[in-house]
Every structure is written in C-alpha cells, then in structure tokens.
## 1
Amino acid sequence: KQEVTQIPAALSVPEGENLVLNCSFTDSAIYNLQWFRQDPGKGLTSLLLIQSSQREQTSGRLNASLDKSSGRSTLYIAASQPGDSATYLCAVKGETSGSRLTFGEGTQLTVNP
Amino acid sequence: DTEVTQTPKHLVMGMTNKKSLKCEQHMGHRAMYWYKQKAKKPPELMFVYSYEKLSINESVPSRFSPECPNSSLLNLHLHALQPEDSALYLCASSQDGPGWDEQYFGPGTRLTVT
C-alpha cells in the first residue's frame, strides 16, 4: 500500500527566504506526483504536476523535482512571501491505484513579514 | 479555464434533512470525484465517476448518494447524516487519461450537521 510522508509538518520562515518542502513515497510505481496548495477552509489549488518520466517542473518561483527511484520529491519556493502562507500537500497517483491519489499529511507553511 | 465550481459554499442541516451538493466543470473532463476533508487532514476519496458511470465507491455509507447527470455535473445527495459527517466536501475533475492527468479541485462546501 502506498504511503506518502511530508516533512516537516510545519515550517515558519521570514519573508524572502528560499525554502524546501519534502515529500516521500513508498511505492515507486507511480504515474505522476502533484503538489497542491490549500488556504484555510478553501479548496486545493494545483501548483505543479510531474509525470513519472520527468525530473522537474517549474512555475514562477516554484520548482518541483522528482526522484522516482528513491521515492522522493521536493518543492522549492524561492524568495518566499507572506502570501505563500498555506498548507502544501503532495499526492501521488500509483500505477495500480486507478484514479486514486494518495495524499501526504501536508506541510503548514507560515511566512512572516 | 481550469475551474470547478461548487454550490452551496456553506450548508447547515439537521440529521433528518435531505440536501444536495452540486459540482460543475466545463473543461471537458470525463472523470469527476467527491472527497471529504476533516480539519488538518488530507482529503479522503469518496466516489469517482468515469464517463458518467460510478467507477469507485470507497465504502461510503448509503446516507451519501452520488449522481452524475451528465459529463459536466456531479451531485452528492445527503440524507440522515450524522454530526461526524460535518466536514469540507470537495469536488474534483480530471481528463481520466492514461494515468498522467492532473486533478483540479473546486472550492468546497463546508457542511455542518446539527
């Protein structure tokens, strides 16, 4: 059974700092990995999708990497801003899980002005 | 347009009420999903519709009844709910392609059962 772990559970940084969020998964037989952002009481916003054949994806100040063989992904946020404060979730779609996503517990990020 | 809409935003219902949650997407996606999310937890999958047919039911109690009237709409009918069913209910959609497609989520319906 696929398990997804996100470290750290919470992170507080000063504005302007570059930071890395980590996601690990136990079964490397995946189709893709998706990073989401969730603001309190809101829905999930898709940030980046990395296919299993890709190594990284970039969108603005965000860069996500994938090392499928070691079961790891990182989300790099450059020059963090208070507006980046949210919970970040990673989710994997396994090759044998049909349409199911397996989510990590999330990292709650606070960027202080 | 990568938008999934959900109505209502908030819903308060008694345990004897019948209500429905609605979800709509116009991205041409053929897979639609219902998730339940409790505070400080990740979403939990409830149902998946693929090409308007129910393909996954994650052993959800029968007081939750999904319906997919057409490829753009997804409903969740609620009846005789319990207070522990209070949660954020999220709808999502995707292309339902060969496994690599991206899921897009709606803003959710905050449900409170009294």
Note: Chain B has no helices and eleven strands.
## 2
Amino acid sequence: KAGVTQTPRYLIKTRGQQVTLSCSPISGHRSVSWYQQTPGQGLQFLFEYFSETQRNKGNFPGRFSGRQFSNSRSEMNVSTLELGDSALYLCASSATGENNSPLHFGNGTRLTVT
Amino acid sequence: DQQVKQNSPSLSVQEGRISILNCDYTNSMFDYFLWYKKYPAEGPTFLISISSIKDKNEDGRFTVFLNKSAKHLSLHIVPSQPGDSAVYFCAAAGYGGGGNKLTFGTGTQLKVEL
C-alpha cells in the first residue's frame, strides 16, 4: 500500500507570494490533516478534513486555507507569504479520523520564504 | 501556551540500556496519548498509543506509562538499539466527538550510542 505522498518536497517562495501544497492520502483513508513544524515549536495543527468538509481548525490566520477533493486528496494554500511561514508542512491521513486511528504522515514539504 | 511539554530536548543512552522519554500535559480533557518517532527528512511514524482508561500499554520493546493524576506519561524503550536514534514526539488528543486534532510536544532527540 502506498504511503502518504506530498508534493513538492521543496519550495522556495518570496514574501507576498502564495503557495499551494498537495497531499495524496493512503488509499481508503478519508481523513487528511495538516501540520506545521518549525524548530522549537514541534508540530502544530493546521486543519483536518473528512469527506471534503473541514472538521477541525487550529489557531492559524486566515491566510492558511485548505480543501479536500472527492478522492480524498487535499491541498493547502498559504497566501501573502511571510518569512515566519518558512517551515516543514506535514500532511497526515487516517482511516476514520477518530482519535484512536493513528495518523500516517507524509515526508512533508519544506517551504522557504525569502 | 504549550499544553504538551517534553522538557528534555535530548537524551543519550548506551545500546542495550533502557531509554525513558518523558512528557507532561496540562489539559485534563486529553484522553488519548500517542508517541511518534521521526527520522531526518521523513515524516513522523506512529509508535504506540494509550487511552486514558489504561495506565500501561506494551508493544514489543516499547512501553508507554500514563499517570493521569500527575498528567505525565513516559515511553520506555528496552533494550535500546542504535536504530532507535531519532526524535520522539509525544502527542495528545481530547474527547471531541471525532476529528483528528493532535497536540504535539516539541520532541526529544534520542541518541543511542554503541
């Protein structure tokens, strides 16, 4: 079974630009979550989608948005990029999206904002 | 406010000995706890979890202990192996009627030396 696939692996953008990251979950998984990892901050929850609906949202500004398609694939968009948005963005999928259904992470997209 | 804390950023252990990684939490609504392991350039991998109705869960060399009154959990790895060298993240989830929203600690870098 293929794992969670994130594209691209690396991105370099300029302040003020916008970026879209893509995530393909494990086949059959309907829940997709996004996390931001920065040095010293651990992983911080961005949002979670289940059956194309956003079920949970973390404490990030509205510049961070996402969506999920009918095939469970998900995209995350960040508009008006700031230097502080430089981070590793991780996508994770789970079978049911319940707390006892472990997350399976992709290898992430490393975003650098200059 | 860091609701899940891993106060030791790093830990060094000799091969064959026990590794003990600690995690504290402040939110009494958390009722499910997980440990993830992360190698460089890879996404986190699920290791083991424990529900708040238990105080211990074992899986091979890995055991997680939960002390609800102290709001503390620990991961024991016995015996430690060089391949265990990685960053370990503690994560917590609250009863919320569905939806994966994990709160992660900042991680502990474990180094297992020969």
Note: Residues 3 and 26 of chain A are 5 Å apart (CA to CA).
